[in-house]
Amino acid sequence: MIIKKLIDVKAGTAEDLSLVKRRTAKTEKILCPSNIELLQAYHTLLKKKRIKKNKNLENLLRTRPIRSLSGVVNVSVLTKPYSCPGKCIFCPTEKGIPKSYVSGEPAVERAKRLKYDPYDQVEKRIEVLAMAGHPVEKVELRVVGGTWSFYDKKYKTWFVKRCFDACNDSESKNLKGAQKKNEKAKHRIVGLSFETRPDFIDLKEITEMHDLGATKIELGVQTLYDDILKLNKRGHGIKETIKATKILKDAGFKVAYQMMLNLPGSTPQKDVETFKELFDNENFKPDSLKIYPCALVKEAPLYKLYLKKKYQPYSEKTLIETIKKIKKLVPRYVRIERIIRDIPATSIIQGGTKISNLRQMIDREMKKEGWQCRCIRCREIKNLKKEKKLYLFREDYEASRGKEIFISFEDKQRKNIYSLLRLRFPSSTILPVLKDCAIVRELHTFGQAAHVSKKDSFIQHKGLGKKLLKEAEKISKKEFKKLAVISGVGVRDYYRKLGYKLEQGYMVKKI
Predict the structure, then answer these.
(1) Residue 384's CB: how many other CB atoms inside 10 A?
(2) Cα(383)–Cα(262) distance, rounded to whole angstroms?
(3) Do residues 406 and 343 both lie within one domain?
């Protein structure tokens, strides 16, 4: 009944949807249905041919549309509880949960319910996203939980294979078979990331991660002050971060830094100085960031220092002002993926930051002050429907002894970014397969995630990625014989159609 009314009134906004739901619920004396329930009813009516397909209504009923507005859907899957070599005083340790995670976090609760089985976690997450109306053909898989590099190799291979099996909706004999099947699967893994520590990154480790299908590595960097790292018992210094960043970039990986504000020994001024150094010093310059204010929880050793009044978290006002200063420093080639962890407010000790919508609060203040963050996430096209004239931009910068070329399609004012490519001229040949190669470390088109075979997206099927790749080939052939792409397994077919061949896990083309 509600579906037909929504179609009759040509509901086009969230306000229209809410009004029809409330009025119908009151008239029929029923509980107001959720969007997921309405979406299920819509698909049932569509299947029975009682209504015609209505794309606007599908978009309106999609739950939390932001989840697929970056062009893919993100699926986080948690590893089993396992020992960790770190002794960081800010890191919570809870029985039966991977270190650094706590009960109440969505991914944790999902993993506990499913007994940490990777197949079940991936399958359930995809099912829920599909029920909420999100296209689930392109999956960005994020493996979280403790230090990935410290887990047993057999477990890691089994874990990743099970993730691929879940996306393939079938079991394969081995990982290579599962990866091959995923190239044409219904749910294709277009990106795969692992969390680890900088001091675990070496040639052997990156080779293993690449064989598993990884395209991005999240490094727990936390700060760029050695004395603060030592005070917090991190177990490594800045030199390990510099080495890890270089070797990862030269192998073609995207590099994400997890940075922590408000650590013992730091100050708001030091936190801001850390981010200045992050982008001024060519030894760092990550591609993306997760900014995590230190969350004070009882399960972390830091709590004892708090009780002894040897540690005091920033006030909410101080934290917000600090992050705003940091946002003004972030270059256009960086994406701030997250601000604040998913730790429940009930787990955070009074005095610690409990704002779950911290990013939104900061965005509102920025608008009032009349400025915009330049990071990629803040400029992504999202669900913008009006087509604009696009311009090709190029930015060259030195990083980790190599040369980075960031090319993108944006509007003239650079307020919206539509598509991007990260091209690297490496400092050295780290793997034999990359000899004489420039490397594409990322190619991404934004906007509502599109179905792989359907031309149903405003942006994703406009050929922007092909144009950027052609530009990368043109730039690279002046100095290199070949171009290599660190491609997600599920995107290999895309590159094959453009003349690339699979060589030891990379898509390679002579230019």
Answers:
(1) 17
(2) 35
(3) no
Angle at 125 between CA 121 and CA 128, to 5 degrees: 145
- Same structural domain, 487 and 362: no
Residues 54 and 69 in one domain: no
- Final residue before a domain boundary, out of 61, 84, 108: 61
Q: How far apart are CA 358 and CA 321, in angstroms?
A: 11
Run of H or E including 423? strand 417-425
CA distances from residue 99 to 21, 102, 218, 220, 499 in whole angstroms, order as listed: 43, 8, 16, 13, 44
Residue 241 belongs to what H/E stretch?
helix 238-250
- 458 pLDDT tier (thresholds 50, 70, 90): low
Q: What is the CATH number of the domain that holds 427?
A: 3.40.630.30
Distance CA 242, CA 88 (A): 20
> What residues pair up with 338 in beta bridges, in sequence order?
290
Q: Across-strand partners of 348?
A: 297
Per-residue model confidence as pLDDT tens digits over 233-257: 999 999 999 999 999 999 999 999 9
Same domain flag for 443 and 418: yes
How many domains is the chain built from? Answer: 3
304 shares its domain with 162 = yes
Backbone angles phi, psi at 432, to 5 degrees: -55, -35
In a domain, 335, yes or no: yes
Answer yes or no: do 126 and 83 share one domain. Answer: yes
Question: For residue range 324-378, what is the model confidence (pLDDT) as tens digits?
Answer: 999 999 999 999 999 988 787 778 876 556 777 888 899 999 999 999 999 999 9
Tens digits of residue pLDDT in 274-315 = 999 999 999 999 999 999 999 888 999 999 999 999 999 999
Distance CA(353)–CA(359), nearest Å, equals: 13
Which domain covers residue 235, as residue numbers?
65-376
DSSP assignment of 498-509 equals TT-EEETTEEEE
Q: Give the pTM.
A: 0.88
Residue 375's CB: how many other CB atoms inside 10 A?
20
Sign of CA dihedral 464, 469, 475, 477: negative
The answer to whether residue 384 sits within a structural domain is no
Please tell me whether residues 47 and 132 are part of one structural domain.
Answer: no
347 within a domain of the structure (yes/no): yes
Amino acid occupying residue 68: S
- Is residue 122 domain-shared with residue 208, that is, in the same domain? yes
User: How buried is 191 (Cβ within 10 angstroms: 0-12 exposed, 13-18 middle, 19+ buried)?
Assistant: buried
Q: Is 308 exposed, middle or buried (0-12, 13-18, 19+ CB in 10 A)?
A: exposed
The verdict on residue 223 lying in a domain is: yes
Are the C-beta atoms of 289 and 260 separated by less than 8 Å?
Answer: no
- Asked if residues 272 and 291 have their Cβ atoms less than 8 Å apart, the reply is no
Q: 346, 376, 406 — which closes off a domain?
A: 376
pLDDT for the residue 130: 85
